[in-house]
UniProtKB/TrEMBL annotation:
One of its GO terms (biological process) is blood coagulation. It is a single-pass type I membrane protein. Hydrolyzes extracellular Ap3A into AMP and ADP, and Ap4A into AMP and ATP. Ap3A and Ap4A are diadenosine polyphosphates thought to induce proliferation of vascular smooth muscle cells. Acts as a procoagulant, mediating platelet aggregation at the site of nascent thrombus via release of ADP from Ap3A and activation of ADP receptors. This is bis(5'-adenosyl)-triphosphatase. GO terms for molecular function: bis(5'-adenosyl)-triphosphatase activity; metal ion binding. It comes from Phoxinus phoxinus. It catalyses: P(1),P(3)-bis(5'-adenosyl) triphosphate + H2O = AMP + ADP + 2 H(+). Residues 1-19 form the signal peptide. Its cofactor is Zn(2+). It is found in: Cell membrane.
Length: 456
């Protein structure tokens, strides 16, 4: 019995270790889709029948904790590297590097310099001898680590969702070495900025269109024979919150325009003082009760936003729904970029395919956890990252987790305790038996000794 228990424990442990990495060549391809700015609670507020159909036969993660700043490029790069922004270097929509004196913006993003601090999954996939394909995912049209994708497009927002998907599936069906494909779509971010997330009519229209794209995706994967064969993940980079002309923070009211340069403005401003650091900091820190002001080294650790040259000396963070301007009008009715603790900044995730459980729901995990999960799915070793495979394994059909793992642990624990007690009990019984035998013998011998003369 003892041997079988230990064997069972050994098999269970080795099973867990072996399952940590699928064999790459056998692993089905993975399609990763991002609908920009899809706030997690849109799922509760709007009718999304196709998305519901997608995850009813797969997995839904209601909320992802994403990374600070909750902007498009930082979060899309975190999803594919598993790193916080300070570690992958894609820190904001507009950046300045004080050493090289280079400038970055999302319209001027093709210099590898800005991307090379990390290795995205598509580069690792190709380094492992497979192919990756992409349609407009940020960074996929850049030569990262001396690596240009064969199957990619130059970014063009005018290319339809259908055309993006058709190209990807054509590459995936014609070239079986394509293991990873990434698709990016601009909505509902665009409508969220323009109308604000509280405009339920306009957001309802935008989400109806997004949902119809998900319907097209399922139909098209069915037609091309990929549905149910490949793993598909639908997610997003961040949420959206309502802004208002009543919630403006005007820097010109606090500080003279000539005393600083602003790199990126709202809702997180990156400030380079042109005068004495402490005077600029003092003027800004008393500027507005709805704006937090940090010297670079004092940015809270939980934001993971200080260990990088590209982070400027002073960082301003507006409270939810507040907009930082130098002066003038509100630029957008909806915005994102705020503290990543805010639920309104969180996106969702849904997954479908042979690797995923069916009809399984999870409340949340971190967006950086997606990277080790995706490496597992395509069967490659992850690079060093800030994510955790253990936190996401429950989504997978072949993984022991949660209550099941707990139940197995309890059974093994009880068996070990029972075995130990049985051994101790046997040991004590043997001791009792061996210590009582000499006494019995002696008694018997005595009797025998007494009896013998009687017999004679
Ligand atoms: P934002 O809302 O400022 O964080 O950025 C979203 C916008 O970025 C989208 O509306 C797109 O127009 C733009 N965008 C997304 N991907 C790319 C890309 N690969 N290259 C250039 N612009 C992009
Ligand atoms: Zn975005
Ligand atoms: Zn946006």
């Amino acid at each position: 019995m003892q041997i079988s228990v230990y064997l069972y424990a050994l098999i269970a442990c080795s099973g867990l270790t072996l399952s940590a990495l699928e064999n790459g060549s056998d692993a089905p391809a993975l399609l990763l889709v991002s609908f920009d700015g899809f706030r997690a609670d849109y799922l509760n507020k709007y009718s999304l029948p196709n998305l519901e159909k997608f995850f009813s036969d797969g997995v839904l993660v209601r909320e992802l904790t994403n990374v600070f700043t909750t902007k498009t490029f930082p979060n899309h790069y975190s999803l594919v590297t598993g790193l916080y922004a300070e570690s992958h270097g894609m820190l904001a929509s507009i950046m300045y590097d004080p050493v090289s004196k280079k400038h970055f913006s999302i319209q001027n993003d093709s210099d590898p310099f800005w991307w090379d601090e990390a290795i995205p999954i598509w580069v690792s996939v190709e380094e492992n001898g497979y192919r990756a394909a992409a349609a407009m995912w940020p960074g996929t049209d850049v030569n990262i680590h001396n690596h240009t994708l064969k199957y990619t497009f130059k970014y063009n927002s005018k290319v339809s969702f259908q055309a993006r998907l058709r190209n990807l599936t054509q590459w995936m069906t014609e070239d079986k070495s394509v293991k990873f494909a990434a698709l990016y779509w601009e909505e509902p971010d665009w409508s969220g900025h323009r109308y604000g997330p509280d405009n339920t009519t306009e957001m309802g229209n935008a989400l109806k269109e997004v949902d119809s794209h998900i319907g097209f995706l399922m139909d098209h994967l069915n037609k091309t024979g990929l549905w149910g064969k490949i793993n598909v993940i639908i997610t997003s980079d961040h949420g959206m919150t309502q802004c208002s002309p009543e919630r403006l923070i005007e820097l010109d009211k606090c500080i003279s325009a000539g005393s600083y340069t602003v790199v990126d403005l709202t809702p997180v401003a990156a400030i380079i003082p042109l005068e004495d650091n402490s005077t600029v900091y003092k003027n800004l820190s008393t500027c507005h009760e709805h704006m937090k002001v940090y010297l670079k080294n004092d940015v809270p650790d939980r934001l993971h936003y200080k260990n990088n040259e590209r982070i400027q000396p002073i960082i301003l963070v507006a409270d939810e729904g507040w907009t930082i301007v130098k002066h003038g009008n509100l630029p957008r009715l909806g915005d994102h970029g705020y503290d990543n603790m805010l639920p309104s900044m969180h996106p969702f995730l849904a997954a479908h395919g042979p690797a995923f459980r069916k009809g399984y729901k999870m409340s949340s995990f971190n967006s950086v956890d997606l990277y080790p999960l995706m490496c597992h799915l395509v069967g490659i070793s992850p690079k060093a990252n800030n994510g955790s495979f253990a936190r996401v394994r429950c989504a997978l059909v072949n993984e022991q987790c949660g209550e099941l793992a707990l139940a197995v642990g309890i059974v093994i624990g009880v068996l070990i305790i029972l075995t130990t007690f049985t051994c101790l009990f046997k040991l004590m019984k043997n001791r009792d038996a061996s210590s009582s035998r000499p006494f019995a013998r002696l008694e018997l011998d005595d009797d025998d000794a007494d009896d013998e003369p009687l017999l004679e």
